[in-house]
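Bit of a strange request maybe. I'm writing a small parser for structure token strings and I need a real example to test against, not something I typed by hand. Could someone generate the tokens for this chain?
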Amino acid sequence: MTATTSTTDTAPDAPHAGMFAPRPGPAGTGAMIRAQALLETRMLLRNGEQLLLTVVIPALLLLVFSSVDIVDTGAGKSVDFLAPGILALAVLSTAFTGQAIATGFERRYGVLKRLGASPLPRWALLTAKTCSVLVTELLQVVLLVAIAFALGWSPHGNPLAVLVLLLLGTAAFSGLGLLMAGTLRAEATLAAANLVFLLLLIGGGVVVPMDKFSGPVRSALQLLPVSALSDGLRDVLRDGAAMPWADLGILAVWAAVGLAAASRFFRWE
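Reply from user aminoacidic:
Good idea to test on real output. This should exercise your parser:
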């Protein structure tokens, strides 16, 4: 009599909750935004060309034009006129010029396309880029204010008004920069962003007072976002104005138009 032995294959246990540590899956949206914003900031601070544009040039302009009588800035110390304008230029260089160039080349090399296929939502990517811009601007403001104080700057006015102006200016320039980066080729964005930076440096009330221009030209230039930002900051920090509503209104219109156009026409590929 022979005994028969039956063998049974034992299937592995099915995975259950808590089996994997850490649990697989995408991180939370907040964590992804923080990580991407930190990466964007590190990349910006490691880029020598971007640092030249966003940090070195504004600081040198403040030092040179405050120390040498190149442009007649009117009564009072030159630094009292120049410091608010250079702060506006710093926002322009970071939120518009630097962001437009960096985003344009990311789009060209397919970085945005790959990020768009990741778990990071596209709106979260734009939020991370905005956070990176704000961190960079904070560092710029700290540096420029320190230089201005060393040159004898004596600001006064409402700090809340300054904060609102800087945030609205950042929104306006970010929208325009993303619009340019998302619609033009990278090389065209590079050339156009640098050209706009130079033109606004001269004609945006940054280092040259607006009263140096003729009436019709001055009226048109005062509607530019950098002119509204520099004039608004000057009204608060030099003249002690409470809240420059006219300049805030101009910046709000530019911010709304720029961000709406960027969201409508921005191409990720």
